[in-house]
Amino acid sequence: MKDTGISDRLNSLFVNRLNINFDNYEESILDSPLLGNEIGLAARDLIYVFFDIEKEFNIQIPQHDIASGGFNTFNSICEVISKQIKIKLLEPVK
Predict the structure, then answer these.
(1) Which NCBIfam families does the UniProt entry name for this protein (predicted)?
(2) How many domains does one find in the chain?
């Protein structure tokens, strides 16, 4: 089940950074590779989005999530964000 709050905030990042609004596309595009022909982002675009996400959600995305394909589609990024937020909520307060 997709968290619509995370999805909406992530979509806003894409709109603000890259002028791509996923709300204007069919739902199937959310599982399409961001670097593929359909969406056609450059690798540097994803780097910008990566840093925007870490700042917006106040999380750190581990390298293994990126290496395992967790930063490949809109939906997979939503899952990574959700997972990192849950981990952060379970961390003891310092």
Answers:
(1) ocin_ACP_rel (TIGR04069)
(2) 1
C-alpha torsion sign, points 38, 35, 30, 69: positive
Exposed, middle or buried: residue 24 (CB in 10 Å: 0-12, 13-18, 19+)?
Answer: exposed
Residue 16 falls inside a structural domain: yes
Q: Which domain holds residue 15?
A: 4-23+42-90
Model confidence over 31-58: pLDDT tens digits?
999 998 999 999 999 999 999 999 999 9
Residue 73: closest CA among 18, 26, 34, 27: 34
So what's the pLDDT on residue 1? 44
d(CA 88, CA 83): 9
In angstroms, the CA 12 to CA 91 distance is 27
CB-based burial label for 63 (10 Å; 0-12, 13-18, 19+): exposed
Phi/psi for 74 (5° steps) reads -60, -50
